[in-house]
């Protein structure tokens, strides 16, 4: 996500080099899904395990990827049909992960093609590359007697993967500059099966944004 945030100002500044360019910034809400991997983590040792074996009673199953995601992004349309941009999607709230907590982040840079671009509607196809990060932490509590208790979250590492992104969205303008864009996304993440059950993570977002420049 930090990489995308560094590149977005550069994308916006480049737009001023084009007389017919338009810049969009947007904020989105939605969800992404991936099935559970089917394995688990032993609560006593932290090793991988499978329920039904000798460790079955302490084997905590890893979950599916789900829950609420927020999205941030921006793009530059160089003309009515071609542009490029970047976006990032993340879980604002961590989800339980076999005794740990996890947070999923997807980020990517995309080329954009708009076969339909009219005053009130734009149909957008986008595709690009980026990364996927699954960060892990655990929460520990400590007390001094019964008077003072403290809960802390401790990071324990993260898994980072390359990913390929494809998206389809319909951008509906409610005013000259303000739009709403329902969008369907697919992230293909090689080796994502180390954390979840599939290398494919489909999702859907609804973006609210503001458009500047000449459409």
Structure in words:
By secondary structure, the chain is mainly beta. The chain has a single domain, classed as Porin (Beta Barrel), CATH 2.40.160. It contains 1 helix and 12 strands; from the N terminus they run αββββββββββββ. The strands form 2 sheets. It has an 8-stranded antiparallel barrel with strand order 1-5-6-8-9-10-11-12. It is elongated and about 65 Å long.
Mean pLDDT: 87
Lateral arrangement of strands in the main beta sheet: 1-5-6-8-9-10-11-12
Let me know the number of strands: 12
Tally of domains = 1
Work out the helicity level.
under 10%
| CA radius of gyration | 21 Å
CATH topology: Porin
**Counting H and I runs of at least 4 residues, what is the number of helices?**
1
Distance from N terminus to C terminus (CA atoms, Å) equals 28 Å
Q: What structural class is derived from the secondary structure elements? A: mainly beta
The CATH architecture assignment turns out to be: Beta Barrel
Q: What's the helix-strand series? A: HEEEEEEEEEEEE
- Biggest beta sheet attributes: 8 strands, antiparallel, barrel
Uncertain segments are 15-19
CATH C-level label: Mainly Beta
Strand content: over 45%
Overall 3D shape: elongated
Brief write-up:
With 215 residues, this protein is mainly beta. Helices cover 6% and strands 62% of the residues. The protein has one domain (2-37, 62-138, 147-213): Porin (Beta Barrel).
């Amino acid at each position: 996500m930090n990489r995308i945030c560094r590149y977005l100002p550069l994308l916006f500044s480049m737009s001023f080099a084009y007389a017919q360019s338009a810049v969009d910034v947007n904020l989105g809400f939605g969800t992404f899904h991936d099935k559970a991997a089917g394995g688990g983590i032993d609560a006593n040792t932290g090793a991988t395990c499978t329920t039904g074996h000798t460790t079955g009673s302490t084997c905590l199953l890893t979950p599916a990827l789900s829950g609420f995601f927020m999205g941030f992004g921006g793009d530059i349309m160089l003309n009515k049909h071609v542009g490029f941009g970047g976006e990032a999607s993340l879980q604002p709230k961590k989800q339980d992960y076999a005794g740990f907590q996890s947070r999923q982040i997807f980020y990517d840079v995309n080329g954009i093609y708009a076969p339909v671009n009219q005053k009130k509607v734009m149909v957008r196809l986008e595709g690009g590359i980026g990364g996927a990060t699954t960060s892990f932490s655990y929460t520990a509590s400590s007390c001094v007697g019964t008077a003072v208790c403290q809960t802390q979250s401790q990071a324990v590492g993260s898994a980072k993967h390359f990913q390929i992104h494809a998206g389809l969205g319909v951008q509906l303008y409610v005013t000259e500059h303000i739009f709403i864009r329902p969008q369907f996304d697919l992230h293909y993440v090689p080796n994502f099966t180390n954390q979840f059950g599939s290398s494919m993570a489909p999702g859907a977002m609804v973006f609210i944004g503001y458009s500047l420049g000449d459409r």
